[in-house]
Description:
By secondary structure, the chain is mainly α. Helix content is about 60%, strand content about 5%.
Amino acid sequence: xxxxxxxxxxxxxxxxxxxxxxxxxxxxxxxxxxxxxxxxxxxxxxxxxxxxxxxxxxxxxxxxxxxxxxxxxxxxxxxxxxxxxxxxxxxxxxxxxxxxxxxxxxxxxxxxxxxxxxxxxxxxxxxxxxxxxxxxxxxxxxxxxxxxxxxxxxxxxxxxxxxxxxxxxxxxxxxxxxxxxxxxxxxxxxxxxxxxxxxxxxxxxxxxxxxxxxxxxxxxxxxxxxxxxxxxxxxxxxxxxxxxxxxxxxxxxxxxxxxxxxxxxxxxxxxxxxxxxxxxxxxxxxxxxxxxxxxxxxxxxxxxxxxxxxxxxxxxxxxxxxxxxxxxxxxxxxxxxxxxxxxxxxxxxxxxxxxxxxxxxxxxxxxxxxxxxxxxxxxxxxxxxxxxxxxxxxxxxxxxxxxxxxxxxxxxxxxxxxxxxxxxxxxxxxxxxxxxxxxxxxxxxxxxxxxxxxxxxxxxxxxxxxxxxxxxxxxxxxxxxxxxxxxxxxxxxxxxxxxxxxxxxxxxxxxxxxxxxxxxxxxxxxxxxxxxxxxxxxxxxxxxxxxxxxxxxxxxxxxxxxxxxxxxxxxxxxxxxxxxxxxxxxxxxxxxxxxxxxxxxxxxxxxxxxxxxxxxxxxxxxxxxxxxxxxxxxxxxxxxxxxxxxxxxxxxxxxxxxxxxxxxxxxxxxxxxxxxxxxxxxxxxxxxxxxxxxxxxxxxxxxxxxxxxxxxxxxxxxxxxxxxxxxxxxxxxxxxxxxxxxxxxxxxxxxxxxxxxxxxxxxxxxxxxxxxxxxxxxxxxxxxxxxxxxxxxxxxxxxxxxxxxxxxxxxxxxxxxxxxxxxxxxxxxxxxxxxxxxxxxxxxxxxxxxxxxxxxxxxxxxxxxxxxxxxxxxxxxxxxxxxxxxxxxxxxxxxxxxxxxxxxxxxxxxxx
Length: 912
């Protein structure tokens, strides 16, 4: 009797409720047809409010377990508990239930296969792809002829292959899933996905066939429409004759059925123009798409994104690109695929802009160096004229914006005319008309400030009879006219640009090498940014490969091959193997080769680094205690024991400081010259010594008269520096940044340096799960606990004029004096005349080195971008032991213990 009621009453009703819930979720699921569709559109996501239907399913499952314990359907009861938790977004709970079913009921093949499939889906939602891969391998091995859910095994593997970008395997899985499924809706969806994957795999005829199949089926209109749209995109020819895809798309605009999809059609037209390098037409159609996006905000966001990329990559207009990125983020939903990557790129746009400007400038200078003097002079004048014209256009655009024009950034609402077909009849909704009006006004009246009664003041200053006539080209009183003053200012600006270009042309081999170094470092920063910050493997790979092709003789090629080896390991194992073999063959003594060959090498390396850090700290302490002869001996010992250390330049510098407290000028200068010869590209010490040498050259007579070149004050200070501009809110980036050789930390981070970016939110140490309470009980897993709302934060954004850059070190067992010394040297070399200083604060077991104060967030971010690439060379702790962030004075004062520090991490992630 228990079997009868458990199966045909409780279990039947529970499964039916799950089926209905999946259908409901599928109907509401926001498909994004610009990306590969999700294989299963049936997950609503986690909600703080329990779903009544799913809670009812959980009650039924628990009823079978507790009251029908003699029935044969206990395993089915646990399975529906797992599915209910999955559909509620409680993926960890769901994984535990499915694991229990697999362990406890191994003889029930259909049941365990179903559990394995759902477990893999749960693991993918928690981003545990390695575990999901293992579970799916088990499910694939266990497939048997009469299995009920063979299609789901292949479909779930298909989703995994899509997540991991293994599109060749994904195509085969999609074909198998389509073949075995008996569900019409799944067959159509998976056929569409198969066509998308075939398009990615450049199998256009097969993709065309499958898109046509979906378009001609009884699929929902939106899927059918997008299948037709994609079919046109991949269509190559018809009857052997070339066809115009744009004409086919424009025909769709005339069909009333497509009224709700006009924005997508214009977007596809723009994409074709973009593919054809017709940027003007592409921009026009992207704008049409934006104006027609009245209900599909994600589509509007995609159009804004394309315009942002065009302005960034093609036009190099970074200011306008930033506005379009902001509009993109306002339009796209936060759950949109790639949203976080776009957010990171927008927030760190300045880094990319700076590096690309460096590359563009150095390329221009190298091009000028290859010309003869006559051609070079003419080209410099031409470049200056282009730069002045661009500046004038920007000024006019800014003025036009003041009159109501400009980019509709940060506005994700349809225009007021959207209901009237999106036209721009209203004058102030038409940027082109506004710009024309501004130009006409300026032609008649000249440059006039936006002030009240401007017309009266003009009359008063130019009324007939009140001023004597002026010579031609001059205004009243003999003052030069507006146009003449403008021409004079333009000529002056042009001369400055020409002088700047002329003075920086790399005419000697040494200057050319420095120019190439700046280009190399800029590209490397960009590659590291794409790899570490945006997590864009494709762009990172392209950047590293560009470096290899452009700089085939660079000494740091091993770094690039190692990065490519790691990046390709998930997407293209064959290429990964090629790069690995290059490292092992051409760079057998490098750390990278040793890491590949010896899994324990990283641990051994860390032990060696810890030993060096201990010796280095002792050296620093000797200098701080003014024991200079002993410090020289210790420095010589360090140099002998660790000749390949990445901190060796700092050891030589400390040695020079110790010697300088007992030397006259000439021996001390010789020490500095030796260091600059040994480490010309060190990014921390080399700039500092160059400034010392410059000061010595300017003040040689005075310094030569000293009996001892360094007098006792602060023993680690050099009492002479080249004066620099005061640091303010304008971002500053050292011009002499050169990447050092790969650091030992690469064993852990796969990166020789951290990219110079706006500081990311710090990552707190992992929480010990054993401290979160005892093992979960079945009841708690089944019922779940509603999420509590976020508690009010003790931190605020009110203090906007007192910012600090903070390095958070997660241990109090390390002496940070050497690290603070390194930060101090960086500040002296780059921001000497600014009022910033570095201080130490203990927060529980953490040590905070905070640098400031900065008068604005912009200034704090500029400092962060400048120092971030050098932190691996400055900090005497491993990269996994420190993070960095920005904080206001008020919030810094509130950091009292580990709890408040963790709380600030959450606040930082949400607000910066």
